[in-house]
UniProtKB/TrEMBL annotation:
Family named by the database record: Belongs to the peptidase S33 family.
Name of the protein in its database record: Alpha/beta hydrolase
Lineage of origin: Bacteria, Bacillati, Actinomycetota, Actinomycetes, Micrococcales
Gene Ontology biological process terms from the UniProt entry: proteolysis
GO molecular function ontology, one term from the record: aminopeptidase activity
A Pfam family reported for this protein in Swiss-Prot or TrEMBL: Abhydrolase_1
Length: 440
C-alpha cells in the first residue's frame, strides 16, 4: 500500500452559479502527483459541488459532504443541469462533491496532446502510474481536509466502487459510510480471471438480446461481413473495422440503453450509386460509441485497475481467444463490451499516439497493491453494495466473493437492474443503500 505524508490540498473557488433548483460551486485543488512525495510535482484536481436550492443559504455549511466516485477509469465527473435520480435523493441531506478525477475533465489533463510534454512513452507511462485508484483516494483525502470536512459519505459507481474499496483499505478514517453500486472489485488478480467471467456474462447477454430482436442477429452478421469487404469510414476519417464495430456491444450493459442498440442497427444500411453502403446516420452514431477521444484514459489505464503485482499483458485480448464466438472474422460474431485490446491503439486516432505508452503499462510488473485484505476483513465502516445479478461488467460471483471478505458489508443483490442501475432508478437505489448502512 502507498506510503504517504498526510497533507491538505491548496484550494481555491473558481465560481458559483445557481440555476434550476440547485447551487453549484466550482473548486480547484492543488495535489501532489505522487502523494509519497508531497514536495514534488503537483497537479490540479477540479470538483463541482451541487447543493439543492431548497436548503437556505445559511444552512449549507452545516450539511454533510458526499463525494461521488464515478465509473471509468478516465471519465470526468457528471455534469447536470438539474437535480434528478440519485442526486435528487442525496441532495435532500448532503452537499454533493463531483470530482473530475486526475487526468480528466477540467483537472490537469492527460491525453494525446498533453502527455508528449512529459517526454517519451516511458516517461509518459511513469507519469500515468500515478493515476490509479490509490492516487484518486489520496486526492480525496487531501480535498476532504481542505474543505474542513470530517469523515464523509462515499458513493462509488462501477470503477468508483473499486476506488471505494481502496479507500476502505488505505484511509478508512476518512469515511463515515460507503455506498457501492455495480462496483465490488475482485481483491486479487490476475486480470484473466475477471475477463473469463465477463466474457461468459457477455455471451449470455448477447443471447438474451437476440432473443428479443431475432432479426438483429442477421443484421450484425451483415454489417460485419460488409466491413470485411468495404472500407467504410467514420466521421474522423478512420476505418470502421469489424472488431471496432463489435464495440457497440457496450450498449448491452444496461437496461436504460440496451434497446437503443436495435434502433442503431435498423439505421445501418442505405442504397448509394455504388451499391449498398452504411448510412451516414449510422456511422455518426457508431463513432460516438467507439471513439475514445473524450476519455482516452479509459483505454490507456483500463486493465491497470486490475493489476496488483503482475503485468496485465492485454489480458482481455488474450482471453478472447478462449471464446471463439467473439472473433470478428466469424460469420456471426458476438458483440463486445468494455474489453480494451491492442488493435484499438492502431485504429482510433485519439489513441494512436498513445500506443507505445499503453504497451508499456501493459508490460509493467511492479504495480502496487490496491486493497488491504486484512484491513478489509476487520472493516468498521458501514458499507452497503448493490450487486446486479446479470451485470456484464462486474461479475456477480466475483462481487459476492469480495463481499464475503469485507467485514460488515451489507449486500443487496437484485436482478431488476443492470450496470446502469442508477440511471434506471437512482433515487430508489440510493435510498435503499443509505438505509442499509444506517440500520442498527
Amino acid at each position: 500500500m502507498p506510503v504517504t505524508r498526510e497533507g491538505t490540498a491548496r484550494h481555491r473557488v473558481l465560481g458559483r452559479h445557481a440555476f434550476r433548483g440547485l447551487r453549484t460551486t466550482e473548486h480547484a485543488f492543488d495535489v501532489p502527483l505522487d502523494h509519497g512525495d508531497p514536495d514534488g510535482e503537483h497537479i490540479e484536481v477540479f470538483a463541482r459541488e451541487y447543493v439543492s436550492a431548497a436548503h437556505p443559504t445559511e444552512s449549507i455549511d452545516g450539511l454533510p459532504w458526499l463525494v461521488f466516485l464515478q465509473g471509468g477509469p478516465g471519465g470526468r465527473g457528471v455534469r447536470v443541469t438539474s437535480l434528478s435520480g440519485w442526486m435528487k435523493e442525496a441532495a435532500k441531506d448532503f452537499r454533493i462533491l463531483m470530482l473530475d478525477q486526475r487526468g480528466t475533465g477540467l483537472s490537469t489533463p492527460a491525453d494525446r496532446l498533453t502527455l508528449p510534454r512529459r517526454g517519451k512513452p516511458r516517461e509518459q507511462a511513469e507519469y500515468l502510474a500515478h493515476f490509479r485508484a490509490d492516487s484518486i483516494v489520496l486526492d480525496c483525502e487531501s480535498i476532504r481536509r481542505a474543505l474542513g470536512s470530517g469523515p464523509w459519505t462515499v458513493y462509488g459507481q462501477s470503477y468508483g466502487g473499486f476506488c471505494t474499496l481502496t479507500y476502505l483499505s488505505i484511509a478508512p478514517q476518512g469515511i463515515r459510510e460507503a455506498l457501492v453500486t455495480g462496483g465490488l472489485a475482485p481483491l486479487d488478480g490476475p486480470a484473466e480471471r475477471i475477463y473469463r467471467a465477463t466474457y461468459a456474462r457477455l455471451a449470455e447477454r448477447n443471447a438474451e438480446y437476440f432473443s428479443w430482436y431475432p432479426a438483429d442477429r442477421q443484421r450484425v452478421a451483415e454489417i460485419a461481413e460488409h466491413l470485411r469487404r468495404v472500407g467504410e469510414r467514420l466521421p474522423d476519417g478512420s476505418r470502421l473495422t469489424p472488431e471496432r464495430f463489435q464495440l457497440v456491444g457496450n450498449l448491452l450493459g444496461g437496461n436504460t440503453r440496451v434497446d437503443t442498440l436495435h434502433y442503431l442497427l435498423e439505421d445501418a444500411f442505405t442504397q448509394s450509386m455504388d451499391g449498398r453502403r452504411l448510412a451516414d446516420a449510422f456511422l455518426h452514431q457508431v463513432h460516438a460509441l467507439v471513439t475514445r477521444a473524450p476519455n482516452p484514459l479509459y483505454a490507456v489505464m483500463h486493465e491497470s485497475i486490475y493489476a496488483q503485482g503482475e503485468p496485465t499483458d492485454w489480458a482481455a485480448w488474450r482471453v478472447q481467444s478462449e471464446y471463439p464466438e467473439f472473433q470478428p472474422d466469424r460469420d456471426e460474431p458476438l458483440l463486445l463490451g468494455e474489453m480494451v485490446c491492442p488493435w484499438l491503439f492502431e485504429q482510433d486516432p485519439a489513441l494512436v499516439p498513445l500506443a507505445e505508452t499503453a504497451a508499456l503499462l501493459a508490460e509493467k510488473s511492479d504495480w502496487g497493491a490496491l486493497y488491504d485484505a486484512s484491513r478489509l476483513a476487520e472493516n468498521e465502516v458501514p458499507v452497503a453494495a448493490a450487486v446486479y445479478r446479470d451485470d456484464i461488467y462486474v461479475d456477480r460471483s466475483l462481487s459476492l466473493e469480495t463481499a464475503r471478505r469485507i467485514r460488515g458489508l451489507r449486500v443487496w443483490e437484485t436482478a431488476d437492474f443492470h450496470h446502469d442501475g442508477i440511471a434506471d432508478d437512482g433515487e430508489g437505489i440510493f435510498a435503499r443503500l443509505l438505509g442499509l448502512v444506517r440500520e442498527g
